[in-house]
Amino acid sequence: GVMCMSEAAVQQSVMAGDDREFLSFVLGEEHYALDITTVKEIRGYEQVTKIANAPDFIKGVMNLRGDIVPVVDLRIKFNVGEATYNEFTIVIMLNVDERIVGIVVDGVSDVIRLSEEEMLPPPEFGVAFDSRYLHGLADVDETMVILVNIESLINSNELGLVEVSQASVGE
Predict the structure, then answer these.
(1) Which of 77, 93, 136, 153 is the most exposed place for a label (fewest CB within 10 A)?
(2) Number of H helices, E strands in the chain
(3) Are 71 and 48 in contact (CB under 8 A)?
(4) How far is Cα 165 from Cα 10, in angstroms, rounded to an integer?
(5) Helices marked H in the chain — which ranges?
(6) Would strands 67-73 and 107-114 be described as parallel, antiparallel, or unpaired?
(7) Number of C-beta neighbours around residue 100 at 10 A
(8) Residue 13, CA distances (Å) to 92, 128, 150, 163 in order
(9) DSSP 8-state class, residue 134
(10) Contact by Cβ (8 Å): 42, 108
(11) Burial zone of 93 (CB within 10 Å; 0-12 exposed, 13-18 middle, 19+ buried)
(12) What letter does residue 86 receive in the DSSP assignment?
């Protein structure tokens, strides 16, 4: 039972007014959210091609309609939850700075719309993500949602994805 959203459906729900829309997802016990404008599509996990010498959180690459897409398991990277792979495991395909990257999460919840006032500054501690990669927090229906700055995370040296996409070109 995987929720699939086409690009059209994702794009349709783009920003209204000053509100920003986020796609919320689950890692372990925590709720996170990322800017929905970066979401290309949501799909089930499928086999990936392993990359030699890649860190363990880079599961490998998958071919998405001709694009070679690195797939990162955020559960392993941030050491949250159990990295299991079954029919419920979700990959969020992101389009960040002209590059497509897949991130593996435990599940996708829903689309949330937040105004600037509803976004609180990130906590200094107690969150798996380094605060450099956070926009802040939001209280959504009494659940604390951690807003991830997915662009800075994907582009960070910490993930090392820049090398991956270059490495896979000449193969």
Answers:
(1) 136
(2) 4, 10
(3) yes
(4) 25
(5) 7-12, 74-77, 150-155, 161-167
(6) unpaired
(7) 18
(8) 16, 29, 18, 33
(9) E
(10) yes
(11) buried
(12) S
DSSP state of 150: H
Three-state DSSP class for 117? Answer: helix
Q: Is the pTM of this model over 0.85?
A: no
Amino acid letter for position 93? M
Token reading at 19: 């509100």
Encoded tokens for 66? 């001709």
Give the pLDDT of residue 121: 86
d(CA 149, CA 124): 15
Which pair of structure tokens corresponds to residue 165?
């996409």
Q: Mean pLDDT of successive 10-residue segments in the chain (171 residues)?
A: 59 60 92 95 92 92 92 90 86 93 94 92 71 87 92 86 57 43
**Sheet with 134-140, side-by-side order of all strands:** 107-114, 20-27, 30-35, 143-148, 134-140
pLDDT at residue 166, rounded to an integer? 55
Count the neighbouring beta carbons within 10 Å of the beta carbon of residue 10. Answer: 20
